[in-house]
Structure formats: C-alpha cells, structure tokens
Amino acid sequence: MLSFLLASAAHAADGKARLDAFFKGLKTMRAEFVQTLVDAEQRVKEESEGVLLLSRPGRFRLDYSKPYRQIYVADGARVWMYDKDLEQVTVRPQAEALGSTPAMLLSGSEPLERNFTLTELGDHEGFTWIDLKPREKDATFAYIRLALEGDVIRAMEMVDNFGQMTRLFFHTVTRNPQVEAGMFRFTPPPGIDVVGE
Fold this sequence. Notes:
outer membrane lipoprotein receptor (LolB), chain A
C-alpha cells in the first residue's frame, strides 16, 4: 500500500512538472484544433475546426474555418469576435470577456495556482490529465481538464455549470514560432456592424 501511495504521489508530481515544463519559456504557440461541444447527456452538438495562435501575455487569435467562419482576437485590452457569415463584429473588454477561461489560461502569465486548484487525474486515452478548478466562486465553468503528451498540451476540456463540455483537441502544436504582431490586432471590415462600441 505504501509503495502504491508513493508511486501515485510521484506520478502526480510528474504531471504537474510536465505542465510547468510546457509553460516554461512559452512565448508564442500555433496549434490546429478540432473543437467538440458535448451536452450534459454526452451527445455531440457541434464540431468545428480552426487554428489557434497565441502570444503571451494576453494575446491570442482563434480562426474557425468549419462549419462557420469566425475569428476571435484578443489584443491585450479587448476581445473582437467577427462572424464572417453574419457580417457582424462584437467587441468587449478582455478582462470582462475572458476572466479565467481556457484562452486566458494559455495566454496568461500568472501561475496557474493563483486562479485554479490543480489535481492530478492520472493517465487516460494515452495522455496525462490534470484537473483545474477555478478559485473564483462565480466562474462560468465548473472545471477545466488538460491532457498532456510528454510536456505538450494535446487537449483541453471545459465543463460549464450545466454539465456541457467544450473539448479542444490539438492536432499540431508548435512552440515559439515566429508570429507577426499584426495577427493580434483587429480592424473591422468596412460596412460591418460593430456591437459593443
């Protein structure tokens, strides 16, 4: 029993060490992803694809290509949400729009322990999983789970307070690629309605 407990403690420390290794020295990241929305009854409601770019601290870009063409850009002060099909842009202050969301988790510079309680969940589906529960009492989600392959994040699962899960699976992850600063600036196209300004 003692050897089992020691092995479990070592494994937990290993998972957290891998997560620390992922974030250590991370300045930019590019990842192609599939996002799946699953309801509380485990039914897939929607699946989408896109590319994530981030520049730490505080800047990211999500380009959705399927099934709808949408762009989300966080420029450090505001978050711009552009729906190409609806020809509409929504803009909100970044702190208000994101809070302790997965996007801020990846692009933020604060230690995770400041905003989350971390728990090692062990190995499943070939990944090492870590559970992050928000310390904020009025968070819009119940928890986030991160899947690590070695010291690379391969998946994120966010479960909201209604049991609905959003899962991002990263096909490719490139650490610290050259990313143009202009990718994190957004100018609404001419003639497009802007909501929030």
